[in-house]
Specification:
Rossmann fold, six-stranded mixed beta sheet, 2 domains, alpha+beta
């Protein structure tokens, strides 16, 4: 598990140290640096997968992230010609990377220095126990992609969730690795034990359906492989209804499915990065996603969330209040812009959450828009 990340001269950060816990949540106004923190981890991963690390350099553009040019990556007010990433994992495993800035470089920053232990490249950041789901996930499709390489060999869902259907087709009847994520209303469906109505199925597909029911009640999944054209057909039904094409059930289902699959299917020590898990979801669904991700983190999965949703935050707070996750395992970071010496810089405030789910401070802009609006609404309306 990553315990801290130190960024030097990278995008909006001159010198920023961030603490990580089992569940780490980034929030803040647009363009304040939340995504840049995610990108720093993704740049290291994609550089390793492209064979540039440990010896050659940093791939600015690739399958996970496209930063642009070296000038796009360097902090605008940098006084040194390098970009630096320092990561500390538990058990004091540390990785230190310095990449030489060259304004002529388009794709790869040459490595200036590197200090790593032998365990760094064995961590989840660089291995198969890793999922990244970007903000722009795939919406409803009549057919989804198949990839035996990504699903069977690398255990991946795709950064847009494009392989979620294939992943479920392959792994749907496997038992979820963390029993604490079991949905309380799942009933055992096997014919062999059909009379044991109180038994619960721990199969991935049944658990996914149950958690999807928190988003859209009664959801059932039907997956058919069209192997001759390397496509998966995804349909949904509700109770005893006929199956519906995915294109007829809305964006919220398709956007949420890979998040639920990643949370339920990941064994302890997996790392999951998720951007905007609230996209296209109604408030109740956002709360439940926050709760599910908190449960995954309590079970040993490291979850990093970027969100604008107070409902996702409240789902985590409710999980803390219910004793489902220790408040010491939750880290909140709020990103804000401040003017300093004629330059706008990013400042990070880190509120704490207590055992009751209460937060010790609410900096200006930290999920306070409803309170601001309520104050106005409580005032008498202006008479015309």
């Amino acid at each position: 598990m990553i315990t801290s990340l130190h960024l030097l001269n990278f995008k909006p950060f001159a010198n920023q140290l961030l603490e990580f816990k089992k569940l780490t949540l980034f929030s803040g106004l647009n363009s304040t640096g939340k995504s840049s923190v995610m990108q720093s981890l993704l740049l290291l991963r994609q550089s390793y997968q492209q064979g540039l690390l440990p010896e050659k350099g940093l791939a600015l553009n690739g399958d996970f992230v496209n930063v642009g040019t070296a000038q796009d990556a360097l902090f605008e007010g940098a006084k040194d010609d390098f970009i630096g990433f320092n990561i500390v994992w538990e058990n004091n495993i540390e990785g230190v990377w310095r990449f030489k800035y060259d304004k002529e470089v388009v794709d790869v920053l040459n490595i200036a220095s590197e200090k790593v232990t032998s365990e760094v490249y064995k961590s989840n950041l660089f291995g198969n126990n890793f999922h990244y789901l970007q903000a722009e996930r795939i919406g409803p499709r009549s057919f989804n992609e198949m990839s035996d390489y990504q699903v069977r060999q690398l255990n991946q869902l795709g950064i847009k969730g494009e392989y979620a259907a294939h992943f479920l087709a392959i792994n749907g009847r496997k038992v979820i690795p963390n029993s604490s994520l079991s949905h309380p209303e799942v009933k055992l469906k096997t014919q062999r034990q059909k009379d044991q109505s109180t038994a619960q199925s721990m199969d991935l597909i049944d658990q996914v359906e149950a958690w999807m029911g928190e988003i859209s009640p009664g959801t059932r999944l039907k997956i058919d492989a069209k192997s001759d054209v390397d496509l998966m057909c995804f349909q949904y039904s509700y109770g005893d209804s006929n199956p519906y094409r995915a294109t007829n059930v809305g964006f919220g289902i398709s956007y949420t499915l890979p998040i639920i699959v990643a949370a339920l299917a990941s064994p302890p020590s997996t790392m999951i990065l998720i951007e905007n898990p609230e996209a296209h979801l109604h408030p109740k669904g956002q709360v439940k996603i926050g709760e599910l991700l908190a449960l995954a983190a309590s079970g040993g999965v490291q979850v990093v969330i970027e969100t604008h949703s107070d409902h996702v935050l409240n789902g985590i707070r409710l999980a803390v209040h219910a004793g489902k996750i220790d408040p010491k395992d939750v880290q909140l970071h709020y990103f804000q812009r401040q003017k300093q010496e004629e330059q706008m810089i990013t400042d990070v405030v880190s509120p704490k959450i207590d055992r009751n789910g209460r937060i010790d401070r609410w900096p200006d802009g930290f999920f306070d828009e409803w309170d601001n609006s309520l104050e106005i609404l409580l005032e008498p309306a202006v008479e015309e």
